[in-house]
From TrEMBL:
This is Farnesol dehydrogenase-like. SUPFAM superfamilies: NAD(P)-binding Rossmann-fold domains. It comes from Tenebrio molitor (Yellow mealworm beetle). Gene3D superfamilies: NAD(P)-binding Rossmann-like Domain. It comes from the Eukaryota.
Length: 205
């Protein structure tokens, strides 16, 4: 593949279920054995489920959200920090958070998803303090997009009228989110961006 600037690169796909610790550990081992130590970790995996917090609340769906959005993120972060510390790498960890990790929006079907993202916000700040206490120069950033034009969350809202209304709302592109990640990674070693929120023009929170 050709990356920005015309430079050649390789993309390695490794299948892993982020809600299963053994899969995460195997993915890190494969990466270390075949590519090399981790310098950058982007925790992008996330899941939303159609349920609620009241009479139809589904315990298993709640659990799936927290296992992926919180526990999977924590395990992947731990493994990355282990490698960076052992190899003396001043790496960078980016959590793809959400605007709902900072405030609750009045949209249906949210259930425990915002709680999982509020956890990511807290985990980012807690990790920043831990890294500083350990004397590690690993950067940590929480990147919180607003609405993004992807297929994510389409299983949560199924009412045709609501879906049509949502389509009219301003949305970011996935490329915009990727560019925000590149911006954060481009900062010099002495610059830390703990939190970055991005939203489409015209969107209000």
């Amino acid at each position: 593949m050709t990356i920005e600037g015309g430079k050649k690169g390789k993309l390695h796909a490794v299948k892993a279920d982020i809600s299963k610790e053994v899969d995460i550990l195997n993915a890190f081992k494969w990466t270390s054995d075949n590519v090399g130590p981790v310098h950058i970790l982007v925790n992008n995996a996330g899941v939303a489920q159609k349920t609620n917090l009241t009479t139809e609340g589904d315990t298993e769906k709640w659990r799936q959200i927290f296992e992926t959005n919180v526990m999977g993120l924590c395990i992947a972060t731990r493994e990355a920090v282990k490698i960076m510390q052992a190899k003396k790498i001043d790496g960078h960890i980016i959590h793809i958070n959400s605007i709902v990790g900072h405030r609750i929006l009045t949209l249906p079907g949210r259930n425990v998803y915002p709680a999982s993202k509020f956890a990511v916000t807290a985990l980012t700040e807690t990790l920043r303090h831990e890294l500083r206490h350990l004397g590690l120069k690993i950067k940590i950033t929480s990147l919180s997009p607003g609405r993004v034009a992807t297929e994510f969350g389409q299983n949560v809202v199924t009412d045709p009228k609501i879906l049509e209304e949502m389509k009219k709302l301003p949305r970011l592109t996935s490329e915009s989110v990727a560019n925000a990640v590149l911006y954060v990674l481009s900062t010099p070693p002495d610059v830390q961006i703990p939190e970055l929120m991005i939203q489409p023009m015209g969107e209000e929170f």
